[in-house]
Automatic annotation (TrEMBL):
<keyword id="KW-0808">Transferase</keyword>
<keyword id="KW-0520">NAD</keyword>
<dbReference type="InterPro" id="IPR022928">
    <property type="entry name" value="RNA_2'-PTrans_KptA"/>
</dbReference>
<dbReference type="GO" id="GO:0003950">
    <property type="term" value="F:NAD+ poly-ADP-ribosyltransferase activity"/>
</dbReference>
<comment type="function">
    <text>Removes the 2'-phosphate from RNA via an intermediate in which the phosphate is ADP-ribosylated by NAD followed by a presumed transesterification to release the RNA and generate ADP-ribose 1''-2''-cyclic phosphate (APPR&gt;P). May function as an ADP-ribosylase.</text>
</comment>
<dbReference type="Pfam" id="PF01885">
    <property type="entry name" value="PTS_2-RNA"/>
</dbReference>
<protein>
    <recommendedName>
        <fullName>Probable RNA 2'-phosphotransferase</fullName>
        <ecNumber>2.7.1.-</ecNumber>
    </recommendedName>
</protein>
<dbReference type="GO" id="GO:0000215">
    <property type="term" value="F:tRNA 2'-phosphotransferase activity"/>
</dbReference>
<dbReference type="InterPro" id="IPR042081">
    <property type="entry name" value="RNA_2'-PTrans_C"/>
</dbReference>
<comment type="similarity">
    <text>Belongs to the KptA/TPT1 family.</text>
</comment>
<dbReference type="InterPro" id="IPR002745">
    <property type="entry name" value="Ptrans_KptA/Tpt1"/>
</dbReference>
<dbReference type="InterPro" id="IPR042080">
    <property type="entry name" value="RNA_2'-PTrans_N"/>
</dbReference>
<dbReference type="GO" id="GO:0006388">
    <property type="term" value="P:tRNA splicing, via endonucleolytic cleavage and ligation"/>
</dbReference>
């Protein structure tokens, strides 16, 4: 089984289009794993999928994108569905990073970082990851250093996505250093 392809399919179902799969996420983004398996089996490509395949997919992932607990599964971040997925506020590290295309820099200086089509702004714990993310939209991305701890102390909410990804509703430009 191609776990990378499966991960993309599960991410699409849980982050962007649960209704296309007949799924209803709870307020924390969870869905019954048996419902997800049933929905995936309806697609001939995943007709033989079993619970162990989902477990192997999660284990094989280079980044932690999904979690399976107590018979339920969810995507940890990246949602574009209209209903907000609730996250617990957590104190971030001193600095976080965000890679962006050069064409967005002036807008970010003016308006700060906004979630755009996602529910949250995605931030990385290190510059290398931010650079790789930024390269998706620009071959020479700009790396923004976020004064996360200071922003948090001044009332900006942060949420831990996983070990490498932090989320925020938005980041005011005063907390952004442009490099």
């Amino acid at each position: 089984m191609n776990y990378r392809e499966l991960s993309k399919e599960v991410s699409y179902a849980l982050r962007h289009a649960p209704s296309e799969y007949g799924l209803v996420l709870d307020e924390n983004g969870w869905v019954d794993v048996q419902e997800l398996l049933k929905a995936l089996k309806e697609n001939n490509k995943w007709a033989s999928i079993e619970l162990n395949d989902l477990l192997s997919m999660i284990q094989a992932a280079d980044k932690k994108r999904h979690e399976l607990v107590g018979g339920k599964i969810r995507a940890l971040y990246g949602h574009t569905i209209p209903s907000p997925i609730k996250k617990e506020i957590a104190e971030p590290p001193e600095h976080l990073y965000h890679g962006t295309a050069r064409r967005f820099v002036e807008s970010i200086k003016e308006k700060g970082l906004l979630p755009q089509e996602r529910q949250y702004v995605h931030l990385s714990v290190d510059e290398n990851t931010a650079y790789e993310v930024g390269k998706r939209r620009d071959e020479k991305p700009v790396i923004l250093r976020i004064k996360a701890k200071l922003a948090f102390m001044n009332g900006i909410s942060f949420y831990k996505g996983n070990a490498d990804v932090w989320l925020s509703d938005s980041i005011n430009s005063e907390y952004i250093e442009f490099h």
